[in-house]
Design brief:
binds flavin mononucleotide; 14% strand; eight-stranded parallel barrel; alpha/beta; 10 strands
């Protein structure tokens, strides 16, 4: 077990050992993974949308709770702002409250519609936004904490393209609740930098794609290992649906269509439908579909357990604190 080195508003808020959260990963953050993150001293989030019905979602939470050995587990809710999705999210809320889940990560649009019920049930809600002003809105709506993800992140970096370093330096002063930084993180030295900027923790996504507990085929993990900081590509910005993904054949085809001025999403749909991601993760074909992956793939250098990855990050944090002490003493 990796020794506790930091106590922050986030470790206290969620009752965890390390200020390192692992954001929801569509199709991938299931019971095995989220429980492993909990046992390693962090907090992970099961992606509610990854399961075919509410029964499977409930069973996954129950399995996760059993595997987590008393450590906290969380659920991710993706807020699209559309009425139909909101009603589905209300059903996920019914289940997660019923199953006693106490940590919820909301993402994208404001969590306003689910917050009253979550708060009444004693849940702690951390809202993930790609810019500070959206995070501020979620705080006004009642979020307990926020994650700000910079444009380095895998998945949806929003439309403003502001990096983590700039957002990290402004967010903790502007936001009245604990701030976690995400987007491009994967090392302990970055954790120390985030804490120095006033954040209460970091969030990982891409770095964890090579975890043993992630069920995807090893060829997908190998592709992440092979990628460096330039191995991702931003696509669909021209349709205001920006995605940062693995730079694969599909991503390049999408980029070509965008460069040719195509604006009809239906033309893109046969390339980008979500089910291709499952096929890629199952088959190990890294060229299939748009596969979320960020610049922090550069830090993923081998397949390792969640516990080992957390250990590496906390050891690196310790070393960088030592370096900092030497610098401040002028040695
Ligand atoms: C494969 C993958 C799938 C993701 N799926 C989701 C998701 O379903 N919901 C969500 O809120 N965030 C999702 N994210 C974003 C992560 O939770 C996290 O915010 C992000 O990966 C952090 O940036 P990083 O990739 O630079 O570590 C996903 C990221 C990746 C890499």
């Amino acid at each position: 077990m990796t020794q506790r080195r930091f106590e922050t508003a986030i470790t206290k808020m969620f009752g965890i050992r390390h200020p390192v959260l692992c954001g929801g990963l569509m199709w991938l953050s299931n019971a095995d993974y989220v429980a492993a993150v909990g046992r390693a001293g962090g907090l992970g989030f099961i992606t509610s949308r990854s399961f075919k019905d509410l029964g499977h979602f409930r069973a996954e939470i129950q399995k996760c709770r059993d595997l987590a050995q008393g450590n906290p587990i969380g659920v991710n809710l993706y807020m699209t702002g559309r009425d139909a999705d909101d009603s589905v999210n209300q059903s996920y809320v019914d289940v997660l409250i019923d199953e006693g889940v106490k940590a919820v990560e909301t993402a994208a649009n404001t969590p306003r519609s689910v917050l009253p019920r979550l708060k009444e049930a004693g849940c702690t809600v951390i809202h993930k936004a790609s810019v500070v002003r959206h995070a501020e809105k979620a705080v006004r709506d009642g979020a307990d904490a926020v994650v700000i993800v910079g444009m380095e992140c895998g998945g949806h970096p929003g439309l403003d393209f502001i990096g983590s370093m700039v957002q990290g330096a402004i967010a903790p002063d502007r936001i009245t609740v604990p701030v976690v930084l995400g987007g491009g993180f994967g090392t302990g030295r970055q954790l120390v930098a985030a804490l120095a900027m006033g954040a209460a923790g970091i969030m990982l996504g891409t770095r964890m794609l090579v975890a043993k507990e992630i069920w995807a085929d090893e060829r997908i993990k190998q592709r992440v290992i092979d990628a460096d900081e330039g191995g991702s590509r931003l696509v669909l910005s021209s349709l205001r649906k920006t995605y940062r993904v693995m730079d694969n054949t599909t991503a390049r085809k999408v980029a070509e269509l965008e460069a040719a001025g195509e604006t009809d999403f239906e033309v893109y749909r046969p390339l980008v439908q979500g089910s291709f991601q499952v096929e890629a993760y199952e088959s190990g074909d890294p060229e299939k579909g748009l596969l979320s992956m960020g610049q922090s793939a550069v830090f993923a250098d081998r397949i390792a357990s969640v516990e080992e990855i957390y250990g590496e990050i906390m050891d690196d944090a310790e070393r960088s604190l030592d370096k900092l002490r030497r610098v401040t003493l002028g040695m």
